[in-house]
């Protein structure tokens, strides 16, 4: 029994960690991997490439649900390299002991879980966090998630999801950073750094996974898993940048996508997973399929049978088969028949074993199974404070007519109404399976703890999230008539966004709009708090409410974070990472659109417009109000003409013209007005900066741009800038901007 582990330790000792640090060098790791590969049978190699889920949890179509003892035997036979949806130090220790002590070579297992926005302390859904535009806070959120998750035996998270999404009908827009490639890239970088820390050898860091490569968010009709088809230019300028940013930040793993891209399923797409990912970008980490996405190539009609699907995935560059059982079933035959070489197998196994070494699992397979640490770190007060902080920063003030907000915490009576106001179950949002909903603070609880002892808090649900039962609306109206102000919490349930949760409409579900209308008719100050996982089309709510807070799903500290903003303890600073349309019929609607040859300028018939609705969004990308006001002035460039090799320096003055301190996210956009033969977007976000200003205070904010920032995939398909006129725009959202121009010169 102990022989195997001793052999492994011996193999590893030949590349013993350099004395000054426990962490093995790359050379030591590769030597150890070479030695181990020589020891492994083909069956054991294929076992490393096979990942299975615990029989109790499924995040995809259930395949052959197995009894866990069947997995125990497969571990002993060296047929499993990794489990997903497997956590707690106790369960992971049990499985790891079988792998290390009862299999021939004792190779430790990798345990993976979708820790998307927290393990036990749940943070805002990623789309919500993106609204904070606070990269430090976003990195800290991922760091805390890793600290808690690794204490429970988790080595690997399938996050960050970096899919750009321009269509809020797609439920998984909730999991990403919204519609913009630059913001999405900056956030991808922050999240990878948070999860992976400074070294994977640290016990509180874990493998991150940039997913789903690629263009999954471009699903036709916003319908999950649907076809995606686009030019290489759009793929490279819109959908790939966040993946490249994640790789530049050192992301250890990549997950392939379910969707077909330009005719080829992403999981069998060599152009994506080898030519771009490895040959162009130099990625040398691990590529894992999505849940049975290899098998689904048969259903796509891109493989005649499971064996061909496995062959195509291998040829494309997928190292590990998640839950498909196809590598296990067919790679032997594919190697014996020469369709796949053992060299290819060795390459995939090397990617897997390298990461197990980097995590220190060969040195100590149980270093992440620490029940005592698990008890100590989950829900740690510091984590709850951080969650409350980023949750408040994620809130976007969409409207505040006649300064309805902030509310007076000493008011006599406040009416808290709506199907989400006292609803623990929904607050964590999608992809929070390891969380504990009953530990989350509801809006009603948050308000109750925030108001004065003299304030009476009245509550009615009013209606359900989805049903057509209007019987509670009258009671809610009667309650509201007694109050000084109404806080109405409406929106979606947690399971209306996330995977396989697309909606054909973007309105408030059920009869919630009737509740809004009935309460608006009371003429009481009406504050609408939105809880949702996507942009909603809510023009009537915008018309009827006095104030609107977009709060997404904020997780464990929901009630406290919203109350901090409602009563002015925190001045809201969130900015929308996704455009809010007036109507679902406008979708796809995004700020970095093309001009067309007949833009709708409000004049003439033959222009690009609808007969029945305005082109403009309800709220534009980058939009968010504050309890104070910010004035922009003196946009200046340090040069009017820019030689290609030079840097353009931009300054702008921002003044807090209100009476409260506040944070502003200053956004810098460009427009390449005339690129040869290629139409460029009317705006492209290229930089942003967050500044805090006291009342009356003003600051000069500076940005620098160089030729790379003006580069795009030209008509000759080279990624390079073109000489010509460039618009430079700066503002507090993508619509209201100061503007100036500069001319990019040709040559050096
Ligand atoms: C799902 C998702 C993927 C997730 C995986 C494991 O189908 O598409 O994002 O990481 O399965 O849960």
Write the layout of secondary structure elements.
Layout: H1 2-13, H2 26-39, H3 42-48, E1 50-53, H4 68-76, E2 82-84, H5 89-102, E3 110-113, H6 126-130, H7 135-150, E4 156-157, H8 181-196, E5 209-213, H9 232-239, H10 241-248, E6 253-256, E7 260-261, E8 264-265, H11 270-280, E9 286-288, H12 296-300, H13 306-316, E10 321-322, H14 326-336, H15 342-358, H16 371-377, H17 381-394, E11 396-400, E12 413-417, H18 443-450, E13 456-460, H19 473-481, E14 485-491, H20 512-520, E15 526-531, H21 539-544, E16 547-550, H22 558-566, E17 630-637, E18 641-642, E19 647-656, E20 662-672, E21 684-693, E22 698-706, E23 712-713, E24 719-720, E25 724-731, E26 737-744
Parallel strand pairs: 1-2, 1-10, 2-3, 3-4, 5-6, 6-9, 12-13, 12-14, 14-15, 15-16, 18-26
Antiparallel strand pairs: 7-8, 11-16, 17-19, 19-22, 20-21, 20-25, 23-24, 25-26
Bound molecules: alpha-D-glucopyranose.
């Amino acid at each position: 029994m102990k022989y195997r582990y001793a052999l492994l330790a011996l193999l590893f000792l030949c590349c013993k960690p350099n004395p000054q640090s426990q962490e093995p060098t790359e050379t030591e790791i590769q030597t150890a991997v070479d030695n181990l590969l020589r020891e492994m049978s083909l069956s054991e190699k294929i076992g490393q490439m096979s990942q299975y889920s615990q029989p109790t949890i499924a995040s995809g179509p259930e395949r052959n649900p197995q009894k866990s003892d069947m997995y125990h035997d497969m571990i002993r036979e060296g047929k499993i390299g990794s489990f997903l949806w497997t956590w707690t130090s106790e369960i992971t220790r049990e499985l790891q002991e079988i792998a290390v002590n009862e299999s021939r070579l004792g190779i430790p297992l990798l345990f993976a879980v979708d820790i998307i926005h927290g393990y036990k302390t749940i943070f805002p859904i990623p789309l919500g966090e993106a609204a904070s535009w606070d990269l430090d806070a976003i990195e800290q959120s991922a760091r805390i998630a890793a600290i808690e998750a690794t204490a429970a035996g988790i080595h690997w998270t399938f996050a960050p999801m970096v899919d750009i999404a321009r269509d809020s009908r797609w439920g998984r827009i909730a999991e990403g950073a919204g519609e913009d490639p630059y913001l999405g890239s900056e956030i991808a970088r922050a999240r990878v750094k948070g999860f992976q820390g400074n070294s994977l050898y640290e016990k509180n860091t874990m493998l991150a996974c940039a997913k789903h490569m690629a263009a999954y968010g471009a699903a036709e009709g916003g319908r999950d898993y649907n076809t995606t088809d686009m030019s290489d230019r759009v793929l490279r300028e819109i959908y790939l940048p966040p993946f490249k940013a994640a790789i530049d930040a050192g992301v250890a793993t990549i997950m392939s996508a379910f969707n077909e891209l330009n005719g080829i399923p992403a999981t069998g797409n060599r152009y994506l997973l080898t030519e771009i990912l490895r040959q162009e970008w130099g990625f040398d980490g691990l590529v894992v399929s999505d849940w049975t996405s290899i098998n689904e190539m048969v259903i796509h009609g891109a493989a005649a049978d499971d064996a061909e699907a496995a062959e195509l995935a291998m040829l494309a560059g997928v190292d590990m088969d998640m839950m498909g059982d196809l590598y296990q079933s067919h790679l032997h035959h594919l190697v014996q028949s020469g369709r796949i070489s053992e060299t290819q197998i060795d390459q995939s196994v090397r990617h897997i074993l390298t990461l197990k070494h980097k995590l220190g699992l060969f040195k100590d397979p149980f270093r992440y199974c620490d029940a005592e640490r698990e008890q100590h770190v989950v829900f740690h007060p510091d984590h709850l404070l951080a969650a409350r902080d980023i949750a408040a920063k994620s809130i976007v003030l969409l409207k505040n007519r006649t300064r309805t907000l902030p509310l007076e915490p000493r008011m006599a009576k406040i009416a808290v109404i709506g199907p989400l106001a006292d609803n623990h179950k929904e607050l964590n949002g999608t992809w929070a399976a390891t969380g504990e909903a009953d530990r989350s603070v509801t809006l009603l609880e948050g308000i109750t703890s925030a108001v004065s002892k003299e304030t009476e808090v009245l509550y009615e649900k009013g209606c359900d999230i989805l049903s057509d039962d209007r019987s509670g609306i009258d009671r809610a109206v009667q309650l509201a008539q007694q109050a000084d102000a109404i806080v109405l919490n409406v929106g979606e349930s947690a399971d209306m966004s996330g995977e396989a949760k697309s909606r054909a409409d973007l309105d408030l579900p059920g009869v919630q709009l009737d509740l809004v209308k009935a309460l608006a008719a009371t003429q009481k100050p009406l504050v609408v708090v939105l809880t949702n996982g996507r942009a909603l089309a809510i023009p009537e709510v915008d018309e009827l409410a006095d104030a609107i807070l977009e709060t997404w799903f904020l997780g464990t500290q929901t009630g406290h974070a919203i109350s901090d903003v409602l009563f002015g303890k925190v001045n809201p600073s969130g900015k929308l990472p996704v455009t809010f349309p007036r109507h679902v019929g406008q979708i796809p609607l995004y700020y970095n659109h093309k001009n067309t040859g007949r833009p709708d300028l409000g004049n003439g018939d033959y222009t690009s417009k609808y007969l029945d609705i305005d082109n403009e969004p309800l709220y534009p990308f980058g939009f968010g109000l504050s309890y104070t006001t910010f004035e922009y002035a003196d946009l200046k460039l340090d040069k009017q003409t820019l030689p290609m090799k030079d840097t353009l320096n931009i300054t702008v003055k921002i003044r807090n013209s209100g009476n409260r301190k506040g944070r502003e996210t200053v956004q810098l956009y460009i427009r390449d007005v005339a690129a040869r033969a290629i139409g460029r977007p009317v705006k492209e976000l290229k930089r942003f900066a967050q500044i805090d200003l006291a009342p009356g205070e003003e600051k000069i904010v500076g940005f620098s741009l160089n030729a790379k920032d003006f580069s795009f995939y030209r008509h000759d398909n080279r990624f390079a800038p073109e000489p010509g006129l460039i618009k430079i725009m700066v503002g507090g959202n993508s619509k209201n901007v100061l503007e100036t121009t500069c001319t990019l010169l040709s040559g050096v």
